[in-house]
């Protein structure tokens, strides 16, 4: 049985394969890139709203929503709107301000900030209990300042330097904006079965409805035959728990 898959896929943001690698051939797939949704600094949750607007355009959607890690809350939010057959989550994680702070620190270091200074900035920005939008704006401004400092070491005019900064910071800023938009999300029970792959389950994120868990040593190894086979098995289970 061929199912329509709605996949939240930010692409390859680490050393491994993107989640699309696990899907297999011959499926109808709609991809929503959470990092490709425009987000204003003063309204971090807005990408979630744009994603839900996109989902509402899928008339009579009865397929499967697939997501991983920090996209889990958004996947469950979409599921509550479009009533899919099921949701499949790979190693779902609830995003906290501490997590955004850790990612901010790593990105600052990647752009040349000394480790101790980056840690101090992230701690003040994200661990003080202040508004998320203020912390996000400050983090983005810091990233751009580091990128401008790097651009100054090259022979560029002002326009070239600004393009350099925009490209260098663009994906980093989108990633932080995506994370910040998931902080404090109250997940609505999607009322459909939820399948969780991986031993990290983020129990406080998962709905009260039916949840099936599948242990897997590496739920991010999307390009490996083992995880691809497990994903096919999950899709073959009917909503009553018997083979479809």
Folded structure, characterized:
With about 240 residues, the protein is an alpha/beta fold. It folds into two domains: about 5-95 and about 185-235, Alpha/Beta hydrolase fold, catalytic domain (Rossmann fold); about 95-180, no CATH class. About 45% of the residues lie in helices and about 10% in strands. The chain has seven helices and six strands, in the order E-E-H-E-H-E-H-H-H-H-E-E-H. It has helices spanning about 45-55, 70-80, 95-110, 115-125, 130-150, 160-180, 225-235; strands spanning about 5-10, 30, 65-70, 85-90, 195, 210-215. A six-stranded parallel β-sheet has the order 2-1-3-4-5-6, sandwiched between helices. The radius of gyration is 19 Å and the shape is elongated. The mean pLDDT is about 80.
CATH class value of the largest domain: Alpha Beta
Unreliable spans: none
Helix-strand sequence: EEHEHEHHHHEEH
Strand order of the largest sheet: 2-1-3-4-5-6
Shape: elongated
- What's the CATH topology label of the largest domain? Rossmann fold
Strand content: 5-15%
Sheet with most strands:
6 strands, parallel
Count, helices = 7
Structural class: alpha/beta
